[in-house]
Amino acid sequence: MPRKTFLCGLMLLIVAVTPLFSENKTDITCTVKGIAVDSISTETIPYVTVSVSTASTPDVYLKRVAGNGAGVFEIAISKTGNYLLTLESVGMQRKQLNLTVVADQKKLELGKIALASSKTQLKGVTVSAAKPLVKVDLDKITYDIKSDPEAQTSTTLDMLRKVPLVTVDGDDNIQLKGSTNFKIYMNGKPSGMTTNNPSQVLKSIPASSIKSIEVITDPGAKYDAEGIGGIINIITEHSLNGLTGTVRGGADNQGGYNGGLYVSSKIGKFGLTTNLNYSNQHQPGQTWLSEKENQDASAAKFITQNSNSDSRYKFYYGNLEASYEFDSLNLVSFTVGGYAGNGHTTANGSTYSVDANRDSISAFKQLTQSTDGWGGMDLTLDYQRTFKKPDQMFTLSYKLSHTPDNTDNYSDLTGLLNYTGYNQHIQNNAKGDEHTFQADYTEPFNKKHIIEFGAKYILRLNTSVNTYLLQNEATQAWEPSSTQPQNNLDETQNILGAYASYSLKLEKFSFRAGVRYEQTWSNVVVTDTSFHVNFKNWVPSVSLNYKFNASSSIKLSYTQRISRPGIWYLNPFIDNSNPYSIHQGNPDLKPEIDNSFSLNYSYINPKLTINTNLFTSFTNNSIERVTRALNDTVIYNTFKNIGLNQNAGLSVYGNWQPTPSVRINLNGNAGYTSLSTNDGSGLKNRGTDYSLSAGGQFTLPGEIKFNLYSGYYSPRIMLQGQNSAFYYYGLSMNRDLLKKKMNIGLYARNPFQETVSRKNFTVTPDYRLDNTSTYMARSVGFSLTYRFGEMKNQIKKVERTISNDDVKGGGGQGGGGQ
């Protein structure tokens, strides 16, 4: 189907069905404004919670918002009638006002509204106060999803757009403080579901099942020593009596499609929640061009390689959670979840070598059929013991993780000029198994002083088995290669960790300091060679925070992180599917150690959020990709601990909501990077890079939500080269139907650009290599979501569990904090 026909058809579908499901609503917007003040001191009351309900049903909130740090609030009412406005704040008596909204009324100014302290209330009067929607702590910002009535008809991804410091653009890309360098947890632990494609997963989870969303900006000693910039921790609501669920699906113009199912239920003290998702993606029309120039070549001066490929990927991700409450203080929960994927690629290419006079030396063509399989599975068992003393808690946890990573590659090389062809079959079966045991204890002496400590033991078993086969031209049989070494890997890694931290929280000043000790000992066997590794790390962290007022604060922090190389970096498997570019991991790699300092200023209120972060960091043994020439035609790629990295920069995040129907966001980052090596090779590179992204979300007449977004990333500095600049743009729109049980959406990514090209180059003393990749940029598709069921009561879940985020994985996957 032509792309234009596909797009037009979807737009006509939305336009056609909208009148069928539209509800009759008064098309007005009356904005109610006011300022909450203390009745005695007349000082403003920051972050007052304001709710609106009809006069006939005062206990059913239609909408709820939080005021800003200066006590100013603004709430929109979309129908005429009699209403009850309720103001609530911790330590203050509830205040209720009767309102009447008439036709054509656009604004209602209430002025200053005085709230009395709960200490001055009359005997016999009960004060019922609600928690503010936004809460700012020493190391995190919490948004109370449960107290927001919009959560009843929204997805978790929708609610993320309301969380301070978090941005979700029209393409459903999530950023924290303008950066994608963060982790997403579910109930305090990383999940295989949110590692690879979090947007798709969060769109399938109804916000009514979420209790709160925490933005942890500075992970402390209790988190594993991974070099991450922050954590978005999604706390799910205790599952409910009854049954509720969501079914969703979607498709795009490139032949991709997806679907998902979320179901949650509770019977008595036993609760069960499951989330299953599937995605099938198609990447047609990909091209690749590689041009290499040797500096001092005796024969092959220029080598050119090109290919055309078509790829199909399948993703599966999901989880199952079960919990049982023995009593109000003892809880056991069980979770199993993960993700899996496989991809199949067919590529046709050719390679040409010429001398300095551009005369042909050799040439061959290559047909490649490759299949990759990857995934991860987590099984967790937790026991939680709480006490009558608030926030005192003890937990015991066990976690089993399994991560396969397999490759199956067939290559048919046919000689065209001075080249002997052959057929090759390469297989690599790699996996990692992990067993983790953990204990944590929290002791709050009072509201000001808190001590936390715990211990963890991890047993990791990494293996890699590879096979190289060549086809016998005479017999057509596959036979082991006599020239390719069988570099099999068998690694056993033991990690013992312990931590302790102390927190002090005063009215304006807060302080946290902690230290984590980790000892690692490993036994590595590569084919017939073995060696042992043993190292220790003390990982300190400290954070100071001062609140100027309820809206603004400044924070100074120092953290040290380590990052252990994962199987993707260690695997000694030699990938020579491209005979002119060989790739191999390095089992001798050591963990990276990073030191970082940051100065952060935040201003947060319901209409405007600003966050600036000035930072610097350095690493003296970073893992870098190293490329060298084996001869005139073949280059060799591997990894080494040779990096001396220093960087400094500034990130700025802004989010402005001038009206309830308009929201504008802006993210900017700029930095200076200096890269060099400690192995005497003289490799070095330095320079600046920056990025800028912006977006807007608009609510149009007819309750249509319209989104625009765009972004630009400058070339990134690398040790031996640079990649190209990159930009993107897009739009989307969606509408709720059937009393907000159904949602239909349409999106277009890079609609005016059919293809996009990415370029990068590598420079060494021996050669220069330029690579250009071209792939389909334009994507148009639709989504459909339907929610069913009703819930009435809740299940408890453990508040702390295991999360291992110390491994440096290929492509930046994995991770989380304890």
Fold and architecture overview:
The chain has about 800 residues and is mainly beta. The chain is built from five helices and 45 strands. It has a 22-stranded antiparallel beta barrel. It has a six-stranded mixed beta sheet with strand order 8-9-14-15-12-13, with no helix packed on it. A four-stranded antiparallel beta sheet has the order 3-2-5-6, with no helix packed on it. Strand 8 (about 135) and strand 9 (about 140-145) form a beta hairpin. The chain is globular and about 90 Å long. About 35% of the residues are buried. The model is unreliable at about 1-25, about 120-130, about 790-795 and about 810-818 (pLDDT under 50).
**N- to C-terminal separation?**
49 Å
Please count the helical segments: 5
Which overall shape is indicated by the principal axes computed on the Cα atoms?
globular
Low-confidence stretches: 1-25, 119-132, 791-795, 809-818
Helix content: under 10%
Oligomer: single chain
- Rounded to the nearest angstrom, the radius of gyration is 29 Å
Q: Which band does the percent of strand residues land in?
A: over 45%
How would a textbook summarize the main sheet? Answer: 22 strands, antiparallel, barrel
Content-based structural category: mainly beta
- Mean pLDDT across all residues, rounded? 77
Strands, total number: 45
